Amino acid sequence: MTGAQQFCREGHGFMCGGNFASVASQFTLDSPAKLNIFLEVRGKRADGFHELETVMLRTQFCDQLTFRAAASSEIVLSLSDATPSGMRSAIPTDDSNLILRAAHALRQLSGTSAGAHIILNKHIPPESGLGGGSGNAAAALIGCRELWKVNISDEQLHAIAATLGSDINFLLSGVPAAVCRGRGELIEPIEVARKLYFVALRPKAGNSTAGVFRRVQISDSPRSSTPLTESLRTGTGDLNALIFNRLVFAAAQLNSSMAAFLKRIPRIVGRPAFMSGSGSTVYVVANCLSDARFTAARLRDTCHVPVWILECG
Asked: Structural domains in the chain?
């Protein structure tokens, strides 16, 4: 599996499966959010996780991770001064954070004793269903491999990613869109015919992924993502009629504010509202960038929570 090219803030380009263009003791990587526009739960696996079929899109909504060489073997994670104060208490900087778990797993596999100082500039809210933590882990794998100059292949990075979380492999792959199966680690890239725009918001309360999956009811007649993926490939069809998420009912039971948004937003903007991942982000489809801006302004004025325009494809 090949990775898309990543760019650090110093302008150096490198591949998930390639080489860094120049040596730097400090560089910054974007860590994109994902959006689920289809999610079916096909059953419970022997390993305790669920078998998924999901369509994910990479968005331009990003965190940033800055990597600095360290004189010691310690791997330290800190939050940037620009990280919003309201997020800081919800983001651990100990070994429970996926960034450090990814970095330690890579170091163990590579055999290096090098350390690192990783600074997270957080924009994507935790427990939002946008894969912020998963994207951070993917960026940590790419960034630490480069910082330490270790001979670890893309396939080895993906093997690490598969042990850490369900969305990391997609965000590590660099592809703009994919059908993901298994736990999410089996990736089938999709060519998207046109740029897509969504308007998203999140209630103040987030959703626990584990809590949502504990409550999901698995259907005897699971849906297929094929009609949606064909619509993406051809640029035809109505996405509003094809988007689906099996987790919505379970998530709405846990988060009354999110459930209220799912009912309220269609009355405000005259179109269906959907949920990404296990929530609590709710979104609507926009027809174009100007429509997205108009819709975002309307939702911002009426819902009084942060609203994002998500550009995909």
From this structure: 5-187 (3.30.230.10), 191-312 (3.30.70.890)
